[in-house]
Write a structure and sequence with these properties.
By secondary structure, the protein is of the alpha+beta class. Helix content is 26%, strand content 15%. The protein has one domain: Glutaredoxin (3-Layer(aba) Sandwich), CATH 3.40.30. The strands form two sheets. A four-stranded mixed β-sheet has the order 2-1-3-4. A two-stranded antiparallel sheet has the order 5-6. A hairpin with a 5-residue loop joins strand 5 and strand 6. The longest helix has 12 residues. The chain starts with a strand and ends in a 9-residue tail after the last strand.
């Protein structure tokens, strides 16, 4: 099975998603997108497959978003893609690709909707919140 995660190891949400993938028994292909960004065509295809806009994928926190004036509503999809290509930190994460779909996994438990295999046991996020019980079932708040 092929699962890929566009991952930032410094991001807690990204680490939680990676943990949930591994808790399903899969070892994904890990793409550290800050070191190896997707091509423009790959990024556009990921956005298309997620069914969102480039603006919806933009990350503000800890990025040059404000300095680049990316809140300007007149910017086109192409201009926003160009900004993400020039500054990969603007790409929100983690993005997960599975045979069941592509998703920006925020919150981290969103990955459960596209994982082909079940969870193999309990899973707690780094902050201690339980999202999967001992039977491998999603915990709902």
């Amino acid at each position: 099975m092929t699962i890929a995660i566009y991952h930032n190891p410094a991001c807690g949400t990204s680490r939680n998603v990676l943990g949930l993938i591994r808790n399903s028994g899969e070892e994904p292909r890990i793409i550290e997108y800050l070191k190896t960004p997707p091509s423009r065509a790959e990024l556009a295809e990921l956005i298309r497959r997620m069914g969102i806009t480039a603006r919806e994928l933009l990350r503000r926190k800890g990025t040059p978003y404000d300095a680049l004036g990316l809140d300007d509503p007149t910017l086109t999809e192409d201009q926003l893609l160009d900004a993400m290509m020039a500054h990969p930190a603007l790409i929100n994460r983690p993005i997960v690709v599975t045979p069941l779909g592509v998703r920006l996994c925020r919150p981290s438990e969103a990955v459960l909707d596209i994982l082909p295999g079940p969870q193999r046991g309990a899973f707690f996020k780094e902050d201690g919140e339980q999202v999967v019980d001992a039977a491998g079932k999603r915990v709902t708040p």
